[in-house]
């Protein structure tokens, strides 16, 4: 079965399943169904985004002991990035690391041992993670899908069990002014300049970090003036703050930022994902880390993730994936040998739960 990992990973990469390109999402999920013809599955659709939930039992269930979770959607890329290539023991391509190769491993592990396990095992494949996951994993959970423990095949763990993730808010701020010809600036009120002025206290309170930090970060990621001419004073401006917050700031960060801004502005805080923690002594984490040590010969520390993922939707979920780098970049890659190790680790972990 391990011999099938690379061919399946390449087949998944070749499908340009960019998030919300629905025909490609359907196509890539159909490919996984072809790999698992003997297994029961439940299709889900939310806001046109499809996802699948495979089940190793003869009857459909939404309650599992373990769920394996992977997303098959990717960020946009050039045509060349959807042509998988091998070089120096690495597989390159859009989604190779995030998370199509890992998804291929999960599909094949499920295929080999799913029907050998006494407990309910789920395989959750989605097409909506790269935006916010609400219409993929989030929707399945809203429909009652749950598990005692879930493994999300996310990038950047590199065989470390990621048991802590920051949460995410998107804050949208709007200012208003008075439009005028830019040659007669004194006749107008520049909404763009007003935005820079009101953001100064926020950026002072939450300065751009110069090194890795495990504290909450506030990032100014976009400013737009809604102006369709370069010789006109803009009367409207919108700015976006991307907030990555820790558990301790979960209930306070929005109010903290709002308090730094004047009342006479538009303000909207959009919750995208909560901060997420699974206790390090969780017995499934302990057993998974033991499997990692036995396969790779090294005990790796637990990992804290600054980004977020679909793990936040599943209560007792962690991120755990193979070795690679450069997710979302032009030279995204995954280590081919690590895919084989990933297969052995997952297989051993799942079988050991039956002992």
Properties at a glance:
2 domains, 6-stranded mixed β-sheet, 28% helix
Give a verbal description of the structure:
By secondary structure, this protein is α+β, with helices and mostly antiparallel strands. It folds into two domains: 2-165 and 275-352, Aminopeptidase, CATH 3.40.630; 167-273, 2-Layer Sandwich (Alpha-Beta Plaits), CATH 3.30.70.360. It has helices at 5-14, 22-35, 96-113, 137-142, 191-205, 253-258, 283-296, 336-352; strands at residues 40-46, 49-55, 63-71, 85-87, 90-92, 121-126, 146-152, 162-165, 167-176, 180-181, 217-224, 232-233, 236-245, 266-273, 276-277, 303-305, 317-319, 324-325, 333-335. Strands 1-2-6-3-7-17 form a six-stranded mixed sheet. The chain has a four-stranded antiparallel sheet with strand order 4-5-19-18.
What layout of secondary structure does this protein have?
Blueprint: H1 5-14, H2 22-35, E1 40-46, E2 49-55, E3 63-71, E4 85-87, E5 90-92, H3 96-113, E6 121-126, H4 137-142, E7 146-152, E8 162-165, E9 167-176, E10 180-181, H5 191-205, E11 217-224, E12 232-233, E13 236-245, H6 253-258, E14 266-273, E15 276-277, H7 283-296, E16 303-305, E17 317-319, E18 324-325, E19 333-335, H8 336-352
Parallel strand pairs: 3-6, 3-7, 7-17, 8-16
Antiparallel strand pairs: 1-2, 2-6, 4-5, 5-19, 8-15, 9-13, 9-14, 10-12, 11-13, 18-19
Characterize this entry briefly.
By secondary structure, the chain is of the alpha+beta class. The chain has helices spanning 5-14, 22-35, 96-113, 137-142, 191-205, 253-258, 283-296, 336-352, and strands spanning 40-46, 49-55, 63-71, 85-87, 90-92, 121-126, 146-152, 162-165, 167-176, 180-181, 217-224, 232-233, 236-245, 266-273, 276-277, 303-305, 317-319, 324-325, 333-335.
